[in-house]
Amino acid sequence: MNDKELVAHYAAQQVLDGMLVGLGTGSTANYFIAELARRVKDDALNIQVASSSVISTLKAQEQGLSIVSIEHLERLDLYVDGADEITPDLVLLKGRGSDLVREKLMARAAERFLVIADQSKLVSRIGEKFSIPIEVPPFAWRLVKRSLEALGGHGDLRPNANKDGFWITSHGSLVLDMTFPESMGNERLNEALNSTPGVVEHGIFHGLASVVYVADNGQVVEKR
Ligand code: 5RP
């Protein structure tokens, strides 16, 4: 079992009968979905799930999980998802898969947000390894980019990996992948992005994680 699978199985043990559980997106979340489906079959666990992306919905459906559509959600007991970067004070960077609007809504709606990751995701500051994904409506991207450049940001629209043109999210936004000066700090950057007109959502998850489960060489460590 690899570290992502190990930590996903560890998180699946936290799921109790009767819970409404949010499913994240990505390779670590996929291991969680598979293990949850196994527990539903083998342990007769009785739960409902809601999904943060089209791909996770398909995976959950394939494995026979009972899905509540996000339109009907008012709250979740648990939300379990991976991350791209995790700081020592549990600020996260998410959204390389560009499903960050649903991911952040579900993280906020959950009583507990469990983050599952391997050691490679630990960083000292947000933006250390990746640029920050910022979703914008297509009509607003130039105006938003200019506002972000005024904050010291650099970057551009995320290209479409398969075709010409730019990446479009499942709800029709473009994604600006931006870097900012280290001196801004995670908190100030989060606040600045929250208050920039035209930003639909951004990839900094500040104050949302309840606990991070990190696997390293076969051991799970809980960070709070
Ligand atoms: C998707 C995400 C993922 O959780 C993040 O990219 C981690 O992915 P993986 O588990 O494949 O390493 O934020 O928007």
Structural description of this entry:
This protein is an alpha/beta fold. The protein folds into 2 domains: 3-122 and 206-217, Rossmann fold (3-Layer(aba) Sandwich); 132-201, 2-Layer Sandwich (Alpha-Beta Plaits). The chain has helices spanning 3-12, 27-42, 54-62, 100-109, 141-150, 186-194, and strands at residues 20-23, 48-51, 76-81, 85-86, 92-93, 110-118, 132-136, 154-157, 174-179, 201-202, 204-205, 211-216, 219-223. The chain has a 6-stranded mixed sheet, sandwiched between helices. The chain has a 4-stranded antiparallel sheet with strand order 8-9-7-10, sandwiched between helices. Strand 12 and strand 13 (219-223) form a beta hairpin. Helix 1 (3-12) packs across helix 2. The longest helix has 16 residues, at 27-42. The radius of gyration is 17 Å and the shape is globular. The mean pLDDT is 95. Its EC number is 5.3.1.6. Catalyzes the reversible conversion of ribose-5-phosphate to ribulose 5-phosphate. Substrate binds at residues 25-28, 81-84, 94-97, 121. Homodimer. InterPro entries: NagB/RpiA_transferase-like, Ribose5P_isomerase_typA_subgr, Ribose5P_isomerase_type_A.
